[in-house]
Structure formats: structure tokens, C-alpha cells
Please model this.
Amino acid sequence: MKAPGWFAILFSLCALNFPVQAADDVDLVLLNGNVYTVNEKQPLAEAIAVKNKRIVFVGSNADAKKFHAARTTDLAGKTVVPGLTDSHCHIFGIGDRELTLNLEGTNTLEDFLAKVGARATKTEPGKWITGRGWIETFWKPAQFPTREDLDKIAKENPVFLTRADGHAAVANSAALAIAKIDKNTPNPFGGEILKDKPTGEPTGMLLDNAMDLVEKQIPKPTAAEREQALITGINRELSLGWCEIQNAGSHKEDIDLIKKAYFDAKARIRFVNCVFGPGQDAQDFLNQGPIIDGFDHHFTQRTIKVIFDGALGSRGAALLKPYSDAPETSGYLTEKPEELRPMFEEALRRGIQPHDSRFVRGRIQSSTARPTKNRGAAMARRARADCRSCRSAAIRQARRDSVNATVACDQRFVFRAETIGIGSPRRGVCVARLFEKRFGHLWWVRCAG
Model:
């Protein structure tokens, strides 16, 4: 039997020494493959044997043929790699985007407005138009859309369209009016209402916590609609070849839907979930503890996600100095550090991983941006100082208590250092080494320079 297509993916090739004998019965043998094991001791192989949905052998064709296989597949030289993980996604947002107005790939303002205008012609006056996925970075000029732009093509509908990173959105005048946002509306903590400098009128762009002013006016989806968004998002990820996702934040009602989807056998992807904090959802999670390999190794929940500042593209990420192209701002924090420390300490005691996006505070993580003189050294000094400042007896004891918790593949507690926008790969390597040296172990770093 020959394998279809040109590229085969398997979920796990981590271990290469298995408690099986060559004459054992197995369910499946794959032969004549170009197998990448991601194992330095045996980087390449030809064949794989599977039993009870687990890989039990990786090696040569000759050795694989010694197994008694119920089924044999000839890969005919096709490539096999370990299953790939989407290491940061918002699965409900992906589903909502697919079900509402998908603005991915709108490469110009005109293209963006054409898609919104087409949706407006099909939408009953007064009904909300929502969507996600646009990003102005490569538009010419690279400028945010405005409420005036949207008013020209969707005057009869309130419009709210989220940027690809989820840290900003643009609303038209009808949506701003419903939210009672005008030139006199102050910025909420952890957010910004962008305003036209000459007139003071809102431009329509809302950053981070300012988005909530409009979002809370949009009719809430039903549980069935949220479930549909979840399954749609999962199916979209599967269609792209992902075997596992790391969902960067959920509230209780969505966690219940995720568990229900697995209980009802509607979800077919491995799922690592974060719980948003601080708040009651995070406190409930701390009380209940982590879930490891639930639903037959398909669901793990052992992380609290805190959004600590904004994003680089929307100029909300908290920087050490003002933005070079927006000198009036250096970003802002969206949470108060002193209110987070008790939650972090409790998470450590209970073997739960703090995942902070995106700023160093204590032992969590850092996000500075856009190259500035000596910024790499300044960030390193700040990281070292913050690291020292959190080394209280409680933290040290909490870290010792969590050593045996199953929170990483090597069972050591891991703080997630996610986004470090340092402007160059060389500085990224230096900062990664700093984190690994100072914080004990580094899960992964995503550089956003």
C-alpha cells in the first residue's frame, strides 16, 4: 500500500528506544521513508512501527520488516517529521474570523475596504459587522484605517474589525456612537483611544483595553455559536497541518466548551490551553489545579496567561524609551505588577506555569521593541534586577515545591519567555542566553524585532 500525497506527518518521534521486540505484532509499519527524528543520536531513519496508536520503533527498513504488521505502507521516499505545533494561537478568534469576515490577505487599504463594503451590501441595516485579520504593516502607506474610511462604505451598520494580533481594532462612527466614545472620552487603563491631533476627535482606532468599550456593546454569541467557532478554528488548524495547538488564553465559559468538544469527540487536535488571569477564572484554576494529558493525551491545561502590555505594531508594547516613529508614546502596561505577584507565587506553589505576555516582571518575560541605543544592555540590567527582586523565600520555596510537577517535558518548572522584540537575531541570542542562565530553563522565545 502506498501513501498518498508527498508529505507525511507523525505526532511523536521523541524516543527511539522502545520496549518491543522485532518479532512483536504491531498495527502499522511505514517503510521507505525519509524520516526526520529530531534526535541527534539518530537524526534520520527509513521506517516506523506503530502499536496501540503509539510509535514503538524508528529505524531501518530491514529491522522494521521483522515485525508482524497488520498493515504496511510504502512511503516511497516521502518525508516524515514529528507533528508540528502552532505555539501561539487564539482558537476561538480563528473560528470567529472564518465565520464572520476574514480580512487576512488584504494587502492594501482599498482591498480591505472592498471586502468590508461587500459584506455591508449583504448585511441588514443596523446589524453589526465584525471581522478580524487585517494588518496595515505592508500597506502603502502603512497607516491604520479610520472611521471615516469605514463610514464611506458601511454607514448604516456599526462596524468593529480586529487587527490580526488582537491588540487593536478599528470602529466606524456608528459603533463609536453606540459605545458613547467621543473627543472627551478618556483612555481606559491599559488602552488608548487614538485621536486626531488637530481636532481631538477619535480616529476609530482602539488599542488593547480601549477595545472593550465597543466590544461589550456587540451582542454576545450563543453557546452554540461559540462551539461552532471552536470547532471551525480547530478544523482550520488541522487543514494547515498542525497536530497540536497552544491556545493563548481562555475564560471559564470557553474552557467548558473546549472540554465538551473533547467529551463529545468533536475535537481531533492536541490542545494545550492557557487560562486568562488575573481574575476569578484564574483563581478557580489555581484551586482546581492543572490538567495533564486529559481526554486520551489530547488536552493539557497548566498555564495562566497574563497580557501585561500591548503589541508592537499598534505601538502599545511597553518600551524603555518612546517609539522612534511615535515619540509621543512608549506604550503602556495593561496590568498592575503589584496585583500579579500573589497570583504568580500561588501558581508556582501549585505547579502551574505563568505565561506573561509580554513584559519582564519578576521571573516572567520581556518585550522591548525597536532598536534604541544600548537598549539590549538596559533590558539585560532590568531583567537581572527584576530577577533578584523576586527571590524571596516564598518564591524559592514555591519553585522547590514545583520541581516534581509535570509542567515540562523534563519535569522542571518553566517560565514562558514569549516575545522579545529586540531588533536583531544577534541580540535575540544574547537575550535568550540571559533568560536561560538567569531563569533556570527556557521553554521558547519568539523574537519580534
The chain has four domains: 7-82, 89-215, 231-260+269-303, 308-449. The first strand starts at residue 7 and ends at 10. The longest helix spans residues 223-239. Residues 3-9, 359-414, 419-432, 434-449 have pLDDT under 50 and may be disordered.
